[in-house]
Structures are given as C-alpha cells and as structure tokens.
Amino acid sequence: MLVLAAALLALAFPNVLGQISPKVINYLLGVVMFGMGLTLNLQDFKVVFSRPKDVVTGCVAQFTIMPLLAWVLSKLFHLDEALALGVVLVGCCPGGTASNVITYLAKGDLALSVGMTGVSTLMAPILTPLLTWMLAGKSVNVDVASMFLSILWIVILPIILGLVVKGLWPKFTERATDYLPAFSSVAIAFIVAIVIAANADKLLAGGLLIVVVVMLHNICGLSLGYMIGRLLKLSEPKKRAISIEVGMQNSGLASSLATIHFAAYPLATIPGAIFSVWHNLSGTAVAYLMKNDKTDHIRL
Question: Which among 248, 233, 190 is positioned nearest to 57, based on CA atoms?
Fold first, then answer.
C-alpha cells in the first residue's frame, strides 16, 4: 500500500518529486541491498548445498521464463524501443527482495525462497547484462562490462557490507533487523515515486499499455513458475516458493540500470517502477489465495 500510495502521489504532484535527481535511485537501492545483507547468514545458503536441485531448478526458471516472457510481450504488443528495453531489463533481473516475505505469507518453502533470492542475486552481475544484450542488444547498445560493474557496486557490495556489519556488530544488527522491512519498503516507495514523477505526463497520456504488459509479465511468471513445479512433481511449498520467486523481480534494479546506462531512453525506467507497484499487490493476493487453498494445488 505504501508503494501504491507513493506512485499515486508522484502522478498527482510530479513537479515536487520530479526535482529529485534520478541518481538517488542507485543509493536507495544500495540501502535496500545493504539491509538484505544484514538479514542474511550462512544458514540461508545451506539449502544450496543440501538441496542443490531445487535451487538450480528455481534459478534456471528465473533466468529463462522472465527474460523470454519480457521479449515475447514486447514484440506481441509492439512496444517502442525504450519501453521494450525497460520490460526486458525487468525480466533479466534477479528475484525481488519482497519475494521471501510473500513466500512466508503463502506458506511456501521459505528456505528455498531465500536460497533462490541469494543465488540469483549473486548471479545477476553476469546473467543480467548478458541476457539484456542477447534480447535487446540488436536495437540498443548494451555495455555488458559496464552493467556488470554497476551491479557489483549497487547490489553485491552493499550486501557484502551488510554481512560484514552483521559479523562485527551482531547485537546491533539483531535490533536493527526488526525495522528493516519497513525501511526497505520506504526506500522502494521513493524509487517508484522518483521514476513515475519524472515520466508522469507520458504515463497519463498513454501509459495503460505498459501497465497491461507489466501485469501480464508478472502474472504469467507466477503461473509458469508454479507450472514448472507441478511438471517436476515438487511438493506444494516448493511450488509456491518457485512461483513467487520467478514472478517477483528486483524491479528497482531494473530502474537503476536504466537510469545509469540508458539515459537516452528515459521511458526505460517506467516498467521497473510499475512492476514494483504491481508485483507487491499481486504477490500479496497470490499469497492470500495460496495460504487459504485447501486442495493439493493452486490454479493461478
């Protein structure tokens, strides 16, 4: 609700929020990733070694379903170059930071969800630039090496710093983690507000199409992730975890990368901002449906 409120305020008062430099997005995302580092521990990665098949299955689904869906939807709806780039960037990013909370609410396999988020995030510096280049490089110049370094600075370094702080000051970290979800939500809300305020006129003039594409991208990702679990005959909690991990992206990273590397295409930041709003709403709804499901499967 906080992210949705931020988006609506940005549309209503674009001149106020539009004064904020888009570069602030990178610092805000770094703060969110630092918070993620504070909450991680070695036990979170135990699932990677104890159940590697589950994690590999989820991560392969993550980095194939969402990028290909993004490319197909961009072609199907004949999106212009900038919006198509933004949708592809969202699809090529790792799992979203809220996916673990949504998996917990859905009574999914939380250990698998955390493991998948961690592994896909660590793989992002290599896979996100490469996949973006493969799917969008023919129409847009994609600097793979530069994107690789950006993800290291914006995502990986803050996570490492978070882990270091947690190791040095465990008692402080334990107290701070109670407030991290709220703090991260505020940071994501600001990212959404900054992007939407900067493009409010264009969104109000003809933004319905990209909203529809973003919604389809997320819903199809959730559905196909769950179907993969069913095809592989995984347990219900595992199916739910993979569904949510695949469908929920680190869309803040997509907006950040668009701001840094594709300044010539300002509309490329919009899909990530819209995705940030929508996937929190859809994720909450899906978690409610899954939690209250009494059968042995869910139809998304």
Answer: 233
Segment 64-104, tens digit of pLDDT: 999 999 999 999 999 999 999 999 999 999 988 788 888 98
**8-state DSSP, 166:** H
Facing residues of 95 across strands?
249
Can you tell me the distance from the alpha carbon of 227 to that of 71, in angstroms, rounded to the nearest whole number? 20
Low-confidence ranges of the chain (pLDDT < 70): 44, 205-206, 294-300
Q: Is 249 helix (H, G, I), strand (E, B) or coil?
A: strand
Residues 6+ apart with CB under 8 A from 162: 33, 34, 35, 36, 37, 38, 39, 40
Distance CA 197, CA 12 (A): 9
Gap between the Cα atoms of 6 and 8, Å rounded: 6
In the block, residue with structure tokens 């955390």: 114
Whether pTM > 0.85 for this model: the answer is yes
**C-beta of residue 125 within 8 angstroms of C-beta of residue 151:** yes
CA separation for the pair 71, 217 (Å, rounded): 10
Q: Which helix (H) or strand (E) holds 290?
A: helix 270-291
Please state, in angstroms and rounded to a whole number, the distance separating the CA atoms of residues 268 and 181.
27
Judge residue 167's burial from the number of C-beta atoms within 10 Å of its C-beta, 0-12 exposed, 13-18 middle, 19 or more buried: exposed
